[in-house]
Amino acid sequence: MRALLLALALAVAPVAAFAQSLTVVDPGGKTKVLTPADLADLPRAEVKSGARTYAGPILTYVLRAGGLPVGPRLHGDPLRAYVVMTGKDGFQAVYSLAELDKDFHDDVVILADHVDGKPLPDKEAPWRVASSGDRKGWRSVFGLARIEARLADAPEKAPAMEHAH
Predict the structure, then answer these.
(1) I need a surface site. Which of 46, 95, 120, 156 has the fewest CB within 10 A?
(2) Residue 122 region by backbone torsions, left for phi larger than 0, else alpha for psi between -120 and 50, else beta
(3) What are the residues facing 25 on neighbouring strands?
């Protein structure tokens, strides 16, 4: 009986680990699967949302680990990118790639794994998107499973623009 239970536990362990993974897709379609171990040492922050405090890796570093252009690499075409966040229940929210980058935007966006000092409840786990700048938590995807960056269509002929420096 013990052997059967051990075999069952070993068979389920990879499924549980996979359920904790996060799929990141860059604008070109290249996919990278991040595990909790990949995210464990990334810089962390706290975000207040109402009366609750969420904590987790800063999303800029998660995006970098997933191969997305952030920081100095976020220029040119990637500035037209938007990110579709998808939860394990299928709920989706959209952010511009620039608003998720701490070098471009003052708000802090995190991949929360804790709330008020405790692990997220099962409904929200393994990760929840939390932003310091959203007044309502409607884009706060629970059970985040996938981050996919897409490029917005470019105009056929962009008008000449002068950038103020």
Answers:
(1) 156
(2) alpha
(3) 31, 148
pLDDT at 157: 61
Query: What would the pLDDT profile of 41-64 be if each residue is shown by its tens digit?
Result: 999 999 998 889 999 999 988 988
Sheet with 44-49, strands from edge to edge, namely: 44-49, 52-57, 114-115, 118-119
pLDDT tens digits, 95-136: 877 777 767 666 888 999 999 999 999 999 999 999 887 666
pLDDT in tens, 128-153: 999 887 666 667 889 999 999 887 87
| Residue 126: exposure state from Cβ atoms within 10 A (0-12, 13-18, ≥19) | buried
106: helix, coil or strand? Answer: coil
Q: What is the DSSP letter of 12?
A: H
- For 26-143, list the strands marked E by DSSP: 31-34, 44-49, 52-57, 81-87, 92-96, 109-112, 114-115, 118-119, 128-131
Alpha-carbon Rg for the chain, nearest whole angstrom, is: 18
Distance CA 140, CA 48 (A): 12
* pLDDT attached to residue 12: 38
